[in-house]
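R.M. (postdoc): so does anyone remember the format we settled on? I'll just put the structure tokens first.
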């Protein structure tokens, strides 16, 4: 009856928008992404740090929903969660969120609007994906890192057993709405974090984009929005292009193969985050991972000296300190196997033969990698790399954010 394999064809819309001040009554961007014939219902989940910085946000959202009542779902609840890895490490917060969904009897036609950084989006996205096998998720990323990279993807997850994203799902969000104006409230440290992922995707896919970042490096280091806004949008477009390509063109949104080019530099990044108890930001860890892999590729004869100098030099010009003492920790090398185990199959890492010239490798000389890591620490043993455990990006005021 079934003589051959068949294929499930997935044709899912992936709506990505960039705008400014999406809750301004005259801005129809957010209202345009809701597709129900009738407005339906929505639950809002906001990063607590953002609400500290913008205590009138709930009123702004309510006013916006009233102004667009024929298109925007009825808001049934407004909840807050902590940001940063805290929200991904505490499974009681996930259970609490699912309890809220259940309390309000949300169904598959309901919308979950998540407003926050990548960790909050991961957690809320996972809860939305497993509730009734999928509620409609609208992501509103609030950091450069999530607008340029993670908010665009189809992955959700929380941490368990000391491993990042040990529990997770693949689920295409209903929509992603990015507010560029929110980025102006970030600390310098968090504003910078998205630049490492932009450098990564430029190295993978667009040498001209890499050259653009090089040309504007000083302006980016000064947080010039005229230089930054195009970077976040181009980075997002390149990430989106990768995950939406058909399989015969190399697309692999659900990571069914052993290749994972968008995680270049991430084997070391994830291990550094774990080893530092997440006091190293993800964007900082990616910069360290890219620099380390570049050092290794150069020492192995794979990456020519001029390209190595361009990669490391650009990351430094953007303001990243590439000499964290944890690079010399012998536990670092364990990240290679942890990375392979998370994906499964044989080890597959993406290195570079040049800017815009990625290459997959299936084995590493761990002794050589350890030498490269130690050399980076020894080169700047007195470096003042900041690793203070600040969880959220937004400036705080004296008013607390209580769940409502």
């Amino acid at each position: 009856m079934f003589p051959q394999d068949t294929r499930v064809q997935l044709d899912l819309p992936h709506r990505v928008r960039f705008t400014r001040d999406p809750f301004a009554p005259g801005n129809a961007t957010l209202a345009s992404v809701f597709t129900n014939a009738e407005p339906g219902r929505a639950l809002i989940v906001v990063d607590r740090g953002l609400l500290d910085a913008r205590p009138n946000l709930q009123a702004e959202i309510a006013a916006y929903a009233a102004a667009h009542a024929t298109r925007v779902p009825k808001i049934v609840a407004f909840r807050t969660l902590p940001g940063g890895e805290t929200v991904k490490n505490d499974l009681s917060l996930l259970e609490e969120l699912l309890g809220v969904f259940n309390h309000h009897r949300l169904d598959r036609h309901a919308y979950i609007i998540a407003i926050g950084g990548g960790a909050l989006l991961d957690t809320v996205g996972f809860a939305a994906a497993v509730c009734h096998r999928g509620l409609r998720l609208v992501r509103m990323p609030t950091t450069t890192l999530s607008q340029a990279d993670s908010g665009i993807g189809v992955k959700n997850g929380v941490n368990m057993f000391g491993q990042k994203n040990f529990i997770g799902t693949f689920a295409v969000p209903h929509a992603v709405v990015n507010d560029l104006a929110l980025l102006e409230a970030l600390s310098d440290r968090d504003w910078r974090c998205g630049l490492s992922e932009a450098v990564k995707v430029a190295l993978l896919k667009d040498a001209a984009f890499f050259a653009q970042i090089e040309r504007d490096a000083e302006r980016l280091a000064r947080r010039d929005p005229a230089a930054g806004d195009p970077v976040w949008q181009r980075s997002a477009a390149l990430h989106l292009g990768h995950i939406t390509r058909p399989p015969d063109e190399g697309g692999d949104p659900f990571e069914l193969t052993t290749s994972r080019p968008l995680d270049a530099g991430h084997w070391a990044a994830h291990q550094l985050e774990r080893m530092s108890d997440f006091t190293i930001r993800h964007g900082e860890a990616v910069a360290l991972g890219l620099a380390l892999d570049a050092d290794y590729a150069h020492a192995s004869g794979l990456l020519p000296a001029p390209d190595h100098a361009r990669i490391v030099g650009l990351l430094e010009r953007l303001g990243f300190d590439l000499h964290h003492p944890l690079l010399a920790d012998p536990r670092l090398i364990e990240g290679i196997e942890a990375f392979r185990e998370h994906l499964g199959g044989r080890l597959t890492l993406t290195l570079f033969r040049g800017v815009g010239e990625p290459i997959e490798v299936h084995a590493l000389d761990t002794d050589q990698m350890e030498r490269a890591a130690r050399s980076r620490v020894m080169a700047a043993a007195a470096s003042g790399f900041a690793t203070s455990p600040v969880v959220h990006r937004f400036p705080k005021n004296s008013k607390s954010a209580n769940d409502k």
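R.M.: ...and that's the designed sequence above, right after the tokens. Also worth knowing: Strands lie at 15-19, 41-47, 74-81, 111-116, 136-141, 155-160, 163-170, 175-179, 349-354, 357-361. Residues 225-244 form the longest helix (20 residues).
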